[in-house]
Structures are given as structure tokens and as C-alpha cells.
Design brief:
Elements (H helix, E strand, L loop, with lengths): L6 E2 L6 E2 L22 E2 L13 E2 L4 E5 L6 E5 L6 E3 L6 E3 L9 E7 L6 E5 L6 E4 L5 E3 L6
Parallel strand pairs: 4-12
Antiparallel strand pairs: 1-2, 3-11, 5-6, 5-9, 7-8, 9-10, 11-12
This protein binds zinc ion (3 copies).
């Protein structure tokens, strides 16, 4: 993976030393390689008896604002509630089972390395590996 070469954070401008994954100040993702998905399904699925597979629940969601179509990062605690877009100030209900709501991805904390992982919905219910540390994770089948 192309590691962060060191330099000013593209979001907040603070100088960040090389090989960081997230900006220490604003948590912006610095490793472009992890932007789409920071998990992958390993080509060899190890037997669960010998490899510990930790079930990890989403801590939040990357949702498209229905008003301005920009991506919002929303904590799981707002699920089912009315939320306000920070860009356009439009309000909508964070109803995860609503088909018209475009949930791009969810995020969760890797239990092995504590880094924040981003995973698209296709990984729901999948046994995956963290791209950062290689640790094995199992995501539950539904977003809730
Ligand atoms: Zn930053
Ligand atoms: Zn908006
Ligand atoms: Zn990890």
C-alpha cells in the first residue's frame, strides 16, 4: 500500500510524519489506498477453530445526504433519528432500512489494531481481514 510520505494534512494542514494512517489532529485518512475499503475478503478463509474471528459492529455510517448528495459520516447512535446535514443544513431521518437512503459504507474499529476501518455494504455478513494489520474480523449481516 502507498504509505503516507509525510507532509501537511490535506484537510487541516498540520504536519504529519510519514507512515501515518489517519491525521492525528483531524482523523482525515492519509493513506489513499484505504479510501474505498480498508478490509478485504482473504483468498484463504482460515478455519474458525484455529483463527480467532472477532465479531465487529459498525460504529457509524457514511451516508449520502438526500438533499445535497454529499457524503456524511454519522455515528451509529443517531440511527433512526432525524439528523441535519453539516453542508446544506437539510434534515432527514437516518433510517437504515429505507431504500432511498444511500448508505455508501459503514465504519468500525478494528479490534486488533484499533484503527478505523471503512467497509462498503457488500462486506456485511462477511469474514474479512483488516488491510492495516491483517487481523480477522466478522461483520454482522445487517446494518443496525
Ligand atoms: Zn488533519
Ligand atoms: Zn446536505
Ligand atoms: Zn487492524
Amino acid at each position: 500500500m502507498p504509505a503516507w510520505p509525510g507532509g501537511p494534512c490535506p484537510k487541516c494542514g498540520e504536519y504529519m510524519p510519514e507512515h501515518l494512517i489517519h491525521c492525528r489532529t483531524c482523523r482525515e485518512l492519509l493513506n489513499e489506498d484505504l479510501k474505498q475499503d480498508s478490509v478485504e475478503i482473504p483468498s484463504f478463509i482460515p478455519m474458525q477453530e484455529i483463527e480467532s474471528m472477532i465479531e465487529v459492529h459498525a460504529t457509524g455510517f457514511h451516508v449520502e445526504c438526500p438533499n445535497c448528495n454529499r457524503e456524511l459520516r454519522i455515528s451509529r447512535k443517531y440511527a433512526g433519528q432525524r439528523v441535519k446535514c453539516k453542508f446544506c443544513r437539510g434534515q432527514f431521518r437516518l433510517n437504515l432500512s429505507e431504500k432511498s437512503l444511500n448508505v455508501h459504507a459503514f465504519f468500525a474499529q478494528c479490534p486488533h489494531c484499533d484503527e478505523e476501518l471503512r467497509a462498503s455494504r457488500k462486506y456485511l455478513g462477511a469474514k474479512v481481514a483488516c488491510k492495516i494489520c491483517g487481523g480477522k474480523i466478522h461483520f454482522p449481516a445487517v446494518l443496525n
